[in-house]
């Protein structure tokens, strides 16, 4: 987080090489500054399991990277959880895929698909991301973003935030600190003065202002 990222992700998908135990995640989260927004990654997990993991780990936001239906999302939101629902351009993003989801839903456009569910390094389709942003104002962009291409991605798509993973790693699950700093620095050069975002750990999500956020 020293590089200046706004959000920190914890992968709770057991088939991922980036998987972390919820109790281990909690030890990290308890040491983070209150300004850091923590995100848990889930893939087609049982609702009760998701709630238990979220409670154990202490993550603020739940990123749903599977085939979770609108009803699944609404159940979690009714219980007070803030969600990011992921749609994959690798599978073809269409308006039909978003039917039933609240237009106030936070979403992420990624390139992943199949069993990988993200973190593949594949570039997402930015034109599809632009379409998504028309439907969902709070749209994060992911999929093959790196220090070399993130400025172009922001200028073309104008997402709410950007998410990078494999391009910033030495090996899966181990970040390259130099690449992380380069990535965040590039984002800040494109949008150096983001408005404040009143989100606080321990108090839930209390409303959002437009901000260029960096999720890693």
Radius of gyration from CA coordinates: 16 Å
CATH superfamily: Aldolase class I
CATH architecture: Alpha-Beta Barrel
Helix count equals 6
Characterization of the model:
The protein is α/β, with parallel strands linked by helices. The protein has a single domain, classed as Aldolase class I (TIM Barrel). Helix content is about 30%, strand content about 20%. The strands form 2 sheets. The chain has an 8-stranded parallel β-sheet, with helices on one face. A two-stranded antiparallel ribbon has the order 8-9. Helix 2 (about 45-55) links the parallel strand 2 and strand 3 (about 60-65). Helix 1 (about 20-30) runs parallel beside helix 2 and helix 5 packs parallel to helix 6 (about 175-190). The chain is globular, with a radius of gyration of 16 Å. The chain starts with 6 loop residues before the first strand and ends with a strand. Residues about 200-210 have low confidence and may be disordered.
Give a topology summary.
Blueprint (H helix, E strand, L loop, with lengths): L6 E5 L10 H8 L7 E6 L4 H11 L3 E4 L5 H9 L3 E7 L17 E5 L15 H10 L3 E3 L8 H8 L3 E3 L5 E3 L2 E2 L1 H14 L22 E3 L1
Parallel strand pairs: 1-2, 2-3, 3-4, 4-5, 5-6, 6-7, 7-10
Antiparallel strand pairs: 8-9
Helix pairs in contact: 1-2, 5-6
């Amino acid at each position: 987080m020293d590089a200046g990222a706004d959000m920190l992700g914890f992968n709770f998908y057991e088939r991922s090489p980036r998987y972390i135990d919820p109790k281990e995640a909690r030890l990290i989260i308890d040491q983070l500054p209150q300004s850091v927004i923590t995100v848990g990654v889930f893939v087609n997990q049982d609702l009760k399991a998701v709630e238990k993991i979220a409670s154990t780990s202490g993550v603020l936001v739940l990123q749903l990277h599977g085939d979770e239906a609108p009803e699944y999302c609404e159940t979690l939101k009714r219980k007070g959880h803030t969600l990011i629902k992921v749609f994959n351009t690798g599978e073809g993003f269409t308006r039909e895929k978003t039917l039933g989801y609240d237009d106030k839903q936070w979403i992420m456009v990624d390139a992943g698909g199949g069993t990988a569910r993200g973190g593949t390094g594949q570039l997402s389709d930015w034109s599809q991301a632009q379409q998504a942003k028309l439907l969902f104002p709070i749209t994060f962009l992911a999929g093959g973003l790196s220090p070399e291409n993130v400025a172009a991605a922001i200028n073309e798509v104008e997402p709410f935030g950007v998410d990078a993973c494999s391009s910033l790693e030495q090996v899966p699950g181990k970040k390259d600190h130099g690449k992380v700093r380069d990535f965040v620095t590039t984002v800040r050069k494109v949008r150096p003065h983001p408005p404040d975002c009143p989100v606080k750990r321990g108090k839930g999500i209390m409303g959002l202002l437009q901000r260029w956020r960096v999720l890693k």
